[in-house]
Every structure is written in structure tokens, then in C-alpha cells.
Amino acid sequence: MLKKIIIIMISTCIIATLVGCSQSTSGAKEQGVNSKTQNDQSKLKVVVSFNPLKEFAEAIGKDKIQVTTVVPEGVEPHDFDLTIKDMKNIGSADLFVYSGFGMEPWVDKTLTSIDNKDLMVVNSSKGITPLKNSAGEVQQEGQYDPHIWLSLKDAKIQTKNIKDALVKADKKNEKFYEKNYLDFSTQLDNLYNEYKTKFKGVQNKNFVTGHAAFGYMCRDFGLKQNSVESVFGGGEPTPQTLKQLVDLCKKDKIKVIFMEQLASPRVSETLAQSVGAKVQKIYTIESSEGNKTYLESMKENLSNIYSSLNQ
Hints:
alpha/beta; 11 helices; 10 strands
């Protein structure tokens, strides 16, 4: 009898110990979840309008920020219509970053509708000298060419504007943001300096694109884009424009017609066939393309343009 009592007592202790361990483990797991949640909440919530700004913000903020992009992949930011969910995301953010110069015509109306006095709004075009559209384009597309992120020099300014806002919103991590900005801007400078030297030695500065998205890049390097479509890639070229492009391609012996993901391929392909040229991809980086980073896409663009001017 005594032996049975002892066995029961030992069994009871073992069960009690196992239950205690189980509760302790469960508690630790719950603490782990709570800790993770608190960690996520400690990150600055940054909402950006479209892809290049996402890359700039993440290059500076890294794991200190959580970035949400408003415009989905493969959608033209200029033609985008916000949803209620997009409005809520922007309204609950710490920072909202947009490109500017009319790239996101929905921004002003959106910001007047949002009730968040603590929201920090970052116009990343601040400090950049805009390129004016032609008289015919102004009425249809706006006063300025908005494709500033396709200039390495202007991308550096955009990134600095984002960095300054992150520092203001999160002063305790100022050194972290400053270091990351220095690293990223050095990479931008190195790529710019490499191709500034290369393009200086090129005699023919003309290249042909699907739509006129590369004006700021041309300003960086003294190049001239000749485009099938206008700044926002809309509409068909006139017969006169097409004839001028054909004549230019023949005169300058242009062997490559560059075409963007969001532009219509038909006219570019027709032009290429007319002059015996090939069609080659060029990145506008409005969406993430080919699994490439911003710097990889820009390097490939510059390399391809440089090669085409030396054929």
C-alpha cells in the first residue's frame, strides 16, 4: 500500500512539473510574439507612391522602417486611382513620400482628405530643377517632365530628402540614416562618374526610345533622346514625327530602338524594321523589372545606351 502511495505521489509531481514547464514555454512563446509585435510597431511606417521611392527609402532606412508602396507593380503611376485601402495606409503612416512634378496627380486631393496632423509628407523633388514640357505637352500632360529618378544626380537629391525626413522623424537613429545615405549616394556618384567619362568620348549623342522618359538622364550626360511617344507614353506619333525618326536613324546609323515595359511595342517595332535596327529593353524603373535593383537597372540602361552609340 505504501509503495502504491509513493508511486502516486511521484507521478503527481512529474505531471505538475510537466504542466509547469508547458505553461512556462507557452508564456515564453507569447512574450516572443508580443516582443515581435512591439518590434514591428517600433519601426517607422513609410508609405511611398511607387517603386523607385521604395528602393531609396529602404536603402536609407533598412530594418528601421516598414515600407508600403501605393501603386501596384506594372501600373503607370500617372494614371493610377487610389482605393480606400490606399487612403487608409497613407493616413496611418508616419511618412508619406511622393516623387513630384505631376507624376502623381492624385496626391494633392488625397492629402487634403487625410486627417492625420502628425503625417510627415515628403515631396522628393524638392531642390531639383525641373525640365519643362513642350507647349503641346503642357495642356495634356502637365508643366514638367516628372521622370527625375532616372537621373543619378537627381536620385541623389530625392534620397537626401527622404533621409532628412527619416532623421527628423527618428532622431535617435540619425547616425544610422546618415551612414546609409552616404553609402548609397557614393554608389550613385561612382556610377555617374564612370559614365560621365565614357559619354564624353562619344561623338553621336542621339538615341531612340519608345517614350520620352529619359530627359533628366540626358541632362546628366549631355545626351539627346528621340522618342516615338510623348513624356507619358500616350498617343500615336504623327506621320511627320515618324518620318523624322526614320530620317534620324538613317542619318546617324542608329541600330537600336529602346523600348520600355509600359510603352506600346508596335510603333517601336515598326520603326526598327524600317531602318534595320533591333529593339532592346530599357528600364524606366516605375515598377520592379527583371528582379533588378535600382542601381542594377540604371547601370544596364547606361551600358546599353553607351554600346548603342558606339555601334
